[in-house]
Amino acid sequence: MSTDFERSDRTVFDLTGKVVVVVGGGQMPGPKIGNGRATAIVAARHGAEVVVVDRNLAAAQETVDMITAEKGNAYAVQADVADKDDCQRIFDTAMQNSGRVDGMVYSVAINPPFDRVNNSMSADDFNHGINVNMLGCYYCNLFAAQCMEKNEGGSTGSIINISSIASIKNEVGLNIGIMPYALGKCGLNYITELTAAQFAAAGIRANTLMLGPIDSTLGNTDSQSLFGFEPDEVDEAYAEVVKLKMGRASAWETGYAALYLLADESRFMTGQQIRLDGGATLVR
Questions:
Q1: Residues 68-116 pLDDT 10s
Q2: How far, in Å, CA of 126 to CA of 129, rounded?
């Protein structure tokens, strides 16, 4: 790890030589870019070899194609994070193909069918949501950290779990997720802290990137389906809760926040919940 931070000619946020696994690096079709895809592209632009993981292999490959079109280095892995064995296979594949894992970003979430009026859902839908939103995070954290323990140096790896302000606030406009999305994100927050504490002595850091109303395809789609918004009403709804006058963030800003956490510059940060929310969770 390069810690010569005082050098004026130092390349900042340099991920050269690092292997970064982005779980959820594909995305649904739509006009906006998603958090996982943007993070994968930003990491590749800063020198990382990126392992793009998604349940939809075609979506993962599309991200890979975007990276390689820019002369970056990436490959796709198909996996369903609701399956523990699939989570293990992600990192087995990364170790076989790349020989190491230096970073892992868990950018996966689903909103299973939910009756908001009656606050109810089927047990199968609830369990599937928890398996994806929380248990998949737990297993990917564990298996990623086990790979990172093999790395040499003072700082051996960085884990980033993408959370949501839905885990700490429950308001329309703030809470994109309905149970078990929000419940899963609460668990993800705690999993991050457990990972940070468990693997600190091995030089592995783990942080939560807690997102607010990001202008992504998934965020806009879920806003419309969950709350009955028309496409042109989504920005209006979020404008009521975002404090900054420039409006919502793009997923590219998620990618650059993740870049800091992946890079050596964040070597002294672990176990933290970092809010990228435009001030939406400020006390008011």
A1: 999 999 999 999 999 999 999 999 999 999 999 999 999 999 888 877 7
A2: 5
Q: Give the tokens for residue 113.
A: 């069918």
pTM of this prediction?
0.90
What's the structural domain count of the chain?
A: 1
**145, 102 contact by CB (below 8 A):** no
Residue 150 belongs to some domain of the structure: yes
Amino acid in the structure at residue 74 = A
Rounded to the nearest 10 degrees, the angle between the axes of helix 35-45 and helix 57-69 is 30
The whole-angstrom distance between residue 82's C-alpha and the CA centroid of its chain comes to 16
Rg (CA), the chain: 18
* CA distance readout (Å), 187 to 112, 192, 215: 17, 9, 24
The answer to whether position 12 is within a domain reads: no
Backbone φ and ψ of 105, nearest 5°: -120, 120
41, 26 contact by CB (below 8 A): no
Judge whether 148 lies within some domain.
yes
CA distance 118 to 79: 33
Q: What is the CATH number of the domain that holds 129?
A: 3.40.50.720
